[in-house]
């Protein structure tokens, strides 16, 4: 029996899920979004989130005895005749981008059994998250998996768990429309740095390294000046011209 992810009563609300250790609160909030990831990321970055399609494959079931066939759009007859016995299935991959940076790669499989939902999704081109608002229905949500690194296709090897990325798989479903979605976030640093990460995913590291190099160069210069000062001091003290030492130091700016 599946445990409900989100429960509430008249005086309490609870999220129940066995999260991987090490997740931050902000990451858990993002991973808990239920069809509104664009809105959550837009609020976090304080900028618009754009959808960039990569691949799309649409198929329709014409008979339970035959394989699904590709569906060319537009096709009003196919959309008006969609049902639980002749569903339309679409697999696609999109990028969620903010300020030119990819903040999430989403791969989804959508199953449609309602003509109204088919029109909204395939003709009007509403994204998955906005579909439920257009349908005016709150979807059921099932969080299937969450982990660090990259998702593992064979679900056996853990070689891809680098810890840099973060991903989740979940289901959203209402009557006539359902989606299973895999989302991969490219870097956990973006949840720490926010808008600064958008400027350049590696800029923070570069700035930190640059500051360290400047500080090291400054210390080297100061050490060199100190050595030169000692040499001049020893030279003038031993040459009998120590009276000119303050004049020389003033000229060099070391007094």
Comma- or semicolon-separated keywords:
single chain, 255 residues, 27% strand, alpha+beta
Could you characterize what this model shows?
This protein has 255 residues and is an alpha+beta fold. It is built from nine helices and nine strands. The strands form two sheets. It has a seven-stranded antiparallel beta sheet. Strands 1-2 form a two-stranded antiparallel ribbon. Strand 3 (50-60) and strand 4 form a beta hairpin. Helix 4 packs across helix 5 (128-135). The model is unreliable at 154-162 and 203-212 (pLDDT under 50).
What is the secondary structure topology, with strand pairs?
Layout: E1 6-8, E2 13-15, H1 25-31, H2 37-45, E3 50-60, E4 69-70, H3 76-80, E5 88-98, E6 101-112, H4 115-123, H5 128-135, E7 140-148, E8 166-174, E9 177-185, H6 189-193, H7 195-199, H8 203-238, H9 245-252
Antiparallel strand pairs: 1-2, 3-4, 3-5, 5-6, 6-9, 7-8, 8-9
Helix pairs in contact: 4-5
Summed up, the helix count is 9
- By secondary-structure content and strand pairing, the structural class works out as alpha+beta
The outline comes out as elongated
Strand content: 25-35%
- The low-pLDDT segments are 154-162, 203-212
Between the first and last Cα atoms, what is the distance in angstroms? Answer: 81 Å
Which strand order do you get reading across the main beta sheet? Answer: 4-3-5-6-9-8-7
Brief description of this entry?
The protein has 255 residues and is an alpha+beta fold.
């Amino acid at each position: 029996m599946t445990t409900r992810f989100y429960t509430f009563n008249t005086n309490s609300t609870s999220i129940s899920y066995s999260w991987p250790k090490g997740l931050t609160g902000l990451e858990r909030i993002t991973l808990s979004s239920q069809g509104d990831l664009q809105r959550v990321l837009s609020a976090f970055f304080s900028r618009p989130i754009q959808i960039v399609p990569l691949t799309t494959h649409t198929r329709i079931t014409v008979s339970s005895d035959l394989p699904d066939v590709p569906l060319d759009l537009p096709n009003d007859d196919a959309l008006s005749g969609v049902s639980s016995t002749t569903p339309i299935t679409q697999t696609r991959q999109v990028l969620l981008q903010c300020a030119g940076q990819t903040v999430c790669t989403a791969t989804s499989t959508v199953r449609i059994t309602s003509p109204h939902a088919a029109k909204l999704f395939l003709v009007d081109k509403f994204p998955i998250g906005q579909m439920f608002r257009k349908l005016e229905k709150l979807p059921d949500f099932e969080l299937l998996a969450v982990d660090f690194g990259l998702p593992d296709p064979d679900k056996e090897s853990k070689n891809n768990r680098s810890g840099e990325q973060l991903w989740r798989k979940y289901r959203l479903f209402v009557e006539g429309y359902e989606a299973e979605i895999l989302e991969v976030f490219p870097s956990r640093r973006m949840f720490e740095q926010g808008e600064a990460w958008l400027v350049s995913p590696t800029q923070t590291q570069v700035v930190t390294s640059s500051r360290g190099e400047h500080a090291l160069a400054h210390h080297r210069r100061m050490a060199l000046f100190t050595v030169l000062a000692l040499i001049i001091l020893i030279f003038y003290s031993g040459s009998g011209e120590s009276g000119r030492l303050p004049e020389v130091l003033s000229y060099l700016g070391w007094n």
